[in-house]
Amino acid sequence: MAAQDVFFLVAVAVATTTALVNPVLFPFRLLFFLVMSICLACIGASAEPSLRPAVAAVAKLYRAYAWEAVISEPPLSQQDLLGAPRTVLEQYFDKNLTALLLEDRKCQEKEGGICKLDFVPWWDSQDPGASELKILPTKDPTIVSAEFEFPSDKSLIKLTYKVTNTPAGWQISDIRSAKWSLLKILGPEFTSSDLASFLRVI
Question: Could you tell me the residue range of the domain that residue 38 belongs to?
């Protein structure tokens, strides 16, 4: 039971006793204890831990799309995030990263195959899977760490998110691993030979 709940029960008991002993003081003491209970509730609420805005932005993505990694059967009719429309992508990524993701999708549709991106960045895999997911703050308030196990071999996947405070709120501006940066993969300097080398290591 929370402290404010205990205080409220004690307050009712004291106020009831007061009503029996001195009915004139009853409404004043009851009002006092009610106000104190509300104050304690407010203090308790403010003491509860809250996520940093950048951590909340990354958690929002995983909360909405965890099914990509944990549900294999039956197939879901939901649209995966890489195939989502601009309005959905902009709920998670800044305008620059959203534009790059859409540009690569357009290229894939035109070429009928791989352009620059051939895996799901937030799962660091072509075949998403994850367990024991942890989303953690770092010393830098704009950098968030995500860690999880890949179920098939229990390997530990570590990703770093760069999160930016934009006019639309906190949004992801890059995702990185020890081997790649999403911005670099989608950028103009990333070539087909880079893609071939990259595919050999994921």
Answer: 3-47
